[in-house]
Amino acid sequence: MNKIQRPAIKPVYRALPPRVGVEYLVRRVRSAPRLLGDLTKSPWSNAGIVDIAHFHPKSSDHRPKTQVRALYTGDAVFVDFSVADRFVRCVHTAFQDLVSKDSCVELFLQPPGTNAYFNFELNCCGTMLLYFIEDPTRHATKVFRKATRVSSEAAAKIRVRSTLTGCVDPERTEPTSWRVGLEIPIAIVTEFVPIVRRFDGEWRGNFFKCGDDTSHPHWAAWNDIGERLRFHQPRRFAPIRFE
């Protein structure tokens, strides 16, 4: 498959300052940690913890506790989402399905030197939706003014693991804890932003938890998205710094 060659995109969105003190430091490790590994033991025990705790006012009274940990090796970043949930539902099982309708976690990651970003969206059973978004403005005939659906061949470079599998239907109404882990190789970034060849320095992004079509819909963010119920707000991304 021919690689997509894209020039660096000049920033067009003026970023809002994140909440005071808000940034996430991704600690470096010598070798790849095991996805869904023991969080109480090294190397995961050394990872910083992000709480996805800013719930939009339109959310129901369900407030699942969601924490994120990340580590990196230079050529890959490893992310763990841990969710203490309830009213868990998952019916989307194909790559690029609208997994945000299910019990879902998301990472939006913006490489340096560009206003474009990737939206890694994963439901509780590990199904992923992934775009490279250059202009998230709503459009009359499509979701975004300028965005590229990442192909299944390119997405195959990403490893995903989940503690739940298949479908969760009917919805589980009892307390249910679940985790999703993913490994993002730098190759997936370089394919769209050729000037970026390793994870280092300061990137920007946000972490989310949602469940649009569950019985108790909710929308939560790490860095607050404000009054507008829309995750795709690059101006509200916060620094994600690689150690």
Structure description:
This protein has a single domain (43-242), classed as Immunoglobulin-like. The two termini are 33 Å apart. It contains two helices and 16 strands. It is globular, with a radius of gyration of 17 Å. Helix content is 4%, strand content 39%. The chain has helices at 152-155, 186-190, and strands spanning 24-28, 49-51, 54-55, 65-72, 76-85, 88-90, 104-110, 117-123, 128-135, 146-149, 159-162, 168-172, 176-185, 201-210, 219-221, 238-242. By secondary structure, the protein is mainly β.
Span of the ends, CA to CA: 33 Å
Helical proportion, percent range = under 10%
Total number of strands: 16
* Order of helix and strand elements from N to C terminus: EEEEEEEEEEHEEEHEEE
In summary, what is this structure?
With 243 residues, the protein is mainly beta. It has 2 helices and 16 strands. It has one domain (43-242): Immunoglobulin-like, CATH 2.60.40.1190.
Which key terms come to mind for this protein?
16 strands, 243 residues, 4% helix, mainly beta, 2 helices, Immunoglobulin-like, disordered N terminus, 14-stranded mixed beta sheet, two-stranded antiparallel ribbon
